[in-house]
């Protein structure tokens, strides 16, 4: 495995996931997600620095791992293809297994799984374009 990746592109990919999450779990799906997850939309999820810091660090780890999977100069097609594949076939389906046992709703799985499909598709777009 080569550690020859574009670190600026990796950071940009992580930032894109962070921004997507703000839109996805904010104005697009906040109310539905809160209802389906049993979360009070007015409640405080914890210290914002810890919550957002953790989210960014985890997005960065995922972006690094994805960049390593793609290799040093992936084509746009490979990046997008692998992004959709990883987001759906690995991440969203893993959520689906957990949600089935936890008896979570299909709506919640579609919101959470959909976010991760788009997250990894964005990673593939950025890493496939920026060499």
Give the topology.
Elements (H helix, E strand, L loop, with lengths): L6 H22 L1 H8 L10 H23 L5 H27 L3 H24 L2
Mean pLDDT over the full residue set: 95
Beta fraction: under 5%
Number of DSSP E strands: 0
Total of DSSP H or I helical runs spanning 4+ residues: 5
Q: How far apart lie the N and C ends?
A: 18 Å
Characterize the largest beta sheet: strand count, sense, and whether it forms a barrel.
none
Instruction: State Rg.
Output: 15 Å
Total tally of structural domains? 1
Order of helices and strands: HHHHH
User: What's the shape?
Assistant: globular
- Which segments are poorly predicted (pLDDT under 50) over 5 or more consecutive residues? none
SS-based class: mainly alpha
How would you describe what is shown here?
The chain is mainly α. It has one domain. It has five helices and no strands. Helix 1 (7-28) crosses helix 3 (48-70). The longest helix is centred in the last third of the chain and has 27 residues, at 76-102. It is globular, with a radius of gyration of 15 Å.
What labels describe this entry?
single chain, 131 residues, mainly alpha, 5 helices, globular, membrane, DUF1761, transmembrane, transmembrane helix, DUF1761 domain-containing protein
């Amino acid at each position: 495995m080569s550690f020859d990746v574009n670190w600026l592109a990796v950071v940009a990919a992580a930032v894109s996931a962070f921004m997507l999450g703000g839109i996805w779990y904010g104005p697009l799906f906040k109310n539905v997600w809160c209802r389906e997850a049993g979360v009070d939309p007015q409640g405080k999820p914890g210290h914002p620095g810890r919550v957002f810091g953790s989210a960014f660090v985890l997005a960065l780890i995922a972006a690094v791992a994805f960049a390593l999977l793609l290799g040093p100069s992936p084509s746009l097609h490979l990046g997008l293809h692998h992004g959709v594949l990883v987001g759906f076939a690995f991440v969203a389906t893993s959520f689906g297994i957990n949600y089935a046992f936890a008896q979570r709703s299909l709506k919640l799985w579609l919101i959470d799984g959909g976010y991760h499909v788009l997250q990894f598709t964005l990673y593939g777009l950025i890493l496939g374009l920026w060499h």
